Amino acid sequence: MFMHVQRLINEIVPDEPDPAAANALQEGLGGQFGEMRTMMQYLFQAFNFRGATGKPYKDLLYGVGTEEIAHVELIATTISRLLDGSPRYKGSPTKPVDEPGKGGATPLSIALDHSNIHHYLVGAQGALPVDAAGNPWSGSYVYNSGNLVLDLLYNVMLESTGRLQKCRIYEMTDNKTARATIAYLIVRDQAHENAYAKALETLGVDWGKTLPIPKTNAERFPEVKKLLDQGLHLKQYTFSADDMSEAGKVFRGAAPASMDGGELVTDIAPPGFPMDIAVERPEEFGPGLDPELLALVQATAELELKDAEDPMAAANAEKTNGAKKSPAKKK
Fold first, then answer.
1. How far is Cα 9 from Cα 269, in angstroms, rounded to an integer?
2. Is the peptide bond before 56 cis (omega within 30 degrees of 0)?
3. Is a pLDDT exceeding 50 seen at residue 177?
4. How does pLDDT run across 253-306, given as a tens digit for each residue?
């Protein structure tokens, strides 16, 4: 089973909204080599794994696949923040529709010029399970042959291609929100390339000077260099709450996909960063809760909290109310 901790795996750095960057990031989320694909591919390979002697490899797949869930959460939240509001719109947040001359452009006019219109028309300024061209994510992307070597080779290709595309996306925007998330994912993609390459080394593959792929010299990106200096590309998380993962039997020793060397290490989970909730967007009618409905929600929540604190009182009150409603029996 899985648990959710209400913290993001990496910090979302604040900056101006940037719908064009948000749409580019959609490729890293719902594209053929994006985070949704890596999440589903590694988890299905783990779900379908056969052979008890191969448990360290299964645990490695589980650890990386579980981390990919957090990557989906991170990149989707980043896209949402990049869409949250529109540049140069200074209208009143309390008015559902902007008034010409009272603070800027029509609230959603940016959807017609700078982005995927579905981000506004369908997603209410939120991420969608699609690629940058608007094509929906497909389960047919997932590769799970049942053969461990083939699956691991395919995973190396997937991480390498994902890293290549993220390096390209990084060079498309100077938005700090976008770049912070992209840089983190570039480094973690290299860590996962290390993980699968190391697993293949234990199965007889000699990489020589093949890795990393691509040889991007990504440390010239300042956000990437900071994370590389922290050794983030040499660490793999198991996300094993009971600490029963054997992934460390595979992910150890010299890193195969590192031009500067380094030793591979495992850890249970990163500390994470605080998670907040996006502000309301009246122009999108989101979340669309009017004052009366909010009052009803609050009253219901307070009643349920009171019942939870004193369940016996709630049970007695229910019996009393039931007795009052029951018709008197005729003698």
1. 9
2. no
3. yes
4. 998 866 567 899 999 999 999 988 887 777 677 777 777 877 888 888 888 888
pLDDT score at 71: 98
Strand partners, 274: 7
Measure the CA dihedral 19/24/29/32, to 10°. 150
Q: What is the DSSP string of 32-81?
A: TTSHHHHHHHHHHHHHT---GGGHHHHHHHHHHHHHHHHHHHHHHHHHHH
Q: Which residue in the block uniquely carries the two structure tokens 């064009």?
A: 20
Task: Report the topology of domain 7-284.
Answer: Ferritin (1.20.1260)
**Model pTM above 0.85:** no
Q: What is the helix (H) or strand (E) element at residue 237, kind and residue range?
A: strand 235-237
Cα(249)–Cα(235) distance, integer angstroms: 14
**The amino acid at 258:** S
Instruction: Identify the pLDDT of residue 90.
Output: 54
Q: Where are the domains of the chain?
A: 7-284, 291-325
> Per-residue pLDDT averaged across 296-321, rounded?
72
Residue that is written with structure tokens 């009143």 in the block: 92
Residue 92 to residues 85, 101, 106, 121, Cα–Cα distance (Å)? 12, 12, 12, 21
Tracing tokens 């191969």 back to the chain, one arrives at 54
Dist CA 256 CA 314 (whole Å):
62
Contacts of 252 by beta carbon, 8 Å cutoff, 6+ apart: 198, 263, 264, 265, 266
Tell me the torsion sign for CA atoms 21, 26, 31, 33.
positive
3 state DSSP class of 285: coil
- Residue 264 tokens read as 């591979």
- Rounded to whole angstroms, the Cα distance separating 107 from 278 reads 17
